[in-house]
Specification:
39% of the residues lie in helices and 25% in strands. It is elongated, with a radius of gyration of 27 Å. With 312 residues, it is an alpha+beta fold. The strands form three sheets. Strands 6-5-4-3-7 form a five-stranded antiparallel sheet, with helices on one face. Helix 1 packs across helix 5, helix 2 packs across helix 3 and helix 4 runs antiparallel to helix 5. Strand 5 and strand 6 form a beta hairpin. It folds into four domains: 60 residues, Arc Repressor Mutant, subunit A, CATH 1.10.10.10; 32 residues, no CATH class; 92 residues, Roll (SH3 type barrels), CATH 2.30.30.100; 78 residues, no CATH class. It is built from eleven helices and eleven strands. Keywords: Transcription, Transcription regulation. Pfam families: HTH_11, WCX, WYL. One of its GO terms (molecular function) is DNA-binding transcription factor activity.
Length: 312
């Protein structure tokens, strides 16, 4: 939209001394003639834009002109910038222009303090190493979301069942360090949540759809947060050799030293597949003291693992 382009041009001019018309034209994928018409519209709106001729010329704002930013405090701007910066670390790299816009309204005398505030908190959910397949899926889905076109993919459920899905994408959700797609599944004829890591052969189609309003209630990532889980009291004992694992996973207030040089931990957990995987991740460093049925289940799982590797 033209109004979006005009606002973006104004912000860029506020953040740079000079910028070439050709650079703006390439950035917004319009002609140089269109950029000069935009500059005239900006001037008519009362924002003083000056064009300098020559080899070192370009387009810039009249010296001393700055946007009135009283609507937001320095702290609020820094918080917004930090949030965008953290989102950009994992699948949100397109926010760089918006971050530049925010930086542009900070006076030079306060820019050092602003940068200091924006480096005080880092939240990075991206995995260690390269995760290019997931990044490719995110990029494909973002394009489909922008154009409101359907996507198809083979989806493997938690039970291992594979089905071909055609989905009208609505929302990308980052929940618990995993990405999900929320949209209308044409197979089920309702909103469904799909984990990106379970998708195969993702394809962006050309068929467009009319976006509806999201359901007012029952959004799965919110419903899961507010659902009261069924919890089981679990008592763990960490060996002296496994104390560092306990200290890395639990708060010090949850650790109780025992008479054998290890730790005792008593917490409530939902009994599901995650719990058993969590307990097995500690290997022989932990022993479940109670409840008895979880001890027995872990023993059976351990015996199965030992048998798989030929251990008696």
């Amino acid at each position: 939209m033209k109004i979006d382009r005009l606002l973006s041009i104004v912000i860029l001019l506020m953040n740079r001394n000079l910028i070439q018309a050709k650079e703006l034209a390439d950035m917004f994928e319009v002609s140089v003639r269109t950029i000069y018409r935009d500059i005239e519209s900006i001037n008519q709106a009362g924002i003083p834009v000056v064009t300098y001729q020559g080899a070192n010329g370009g387009i810039g704002l009249m010296e001393g002109y700055r946007l009135d930013r009283n609507v937001l405090t320095d702290r609020e701007l820094a918080d917004i910038f930090t949030a965008l910066q953290n989102v950009s670390a994992y699948g949100g790299g397109e926010h760089s222009l918006l971050m530049e816009k925010i930086s542009s309204v900070i006076p030079p005398s306060k820019i050092d303090a602003f940068r200091s505030k924006t480096t005080q908190l880092v939240v990075d959910f991206s995995p260690w190493g390269i995760n290019s397949p997931l990044e490719e899926r995110l990029s494909t889905l973002k394009e489909a979301l922008d154009k409101s076109v359907t996507v198809t993919f083979e989806y493997v459920s938690a039970e291992g069942q594979a089905t071909l899905r055609s989905v009208e994408p609505y929302t990308l959700v980052l929940k618990g360090q995993s990405w999900y797609l929320y949209g209308i599944c044409t197979l089920r004829q309702e909103f469904r949540l799909f984990k990106l890591l379970r998708m195969k052969t993702l394809v962006k189609e050309t068929r467009s759809f009319t976006r509806q309003d999201l359901p007012a209630k029952g959004l799965p990532w919110i419903a899961e947060m507010t659902r009261e889980p069924s919890l089981v009291p679990v008592v763990l004992r960490f060996t002296p050799e496994g104390k560092h694992l306990a200290e890395d996973r639990f708060d010090y207030t949850e650790l109780e030293a025992d008479d054998k040089g290890g730790y005792r931990v008593s917490l409530d957990y939902p009994e599901d597949g995650w719990l058993y995987g969590f307990l097995l991740s500690f290997g022989t460093a932990v022993e479940v003291l109670s409840p008895e049925h979880i001890r027995l289940k872990l023993g059976e799982m351990g015996a199965g693992i030992a048998a798989k590797y030929g251990c008696s």
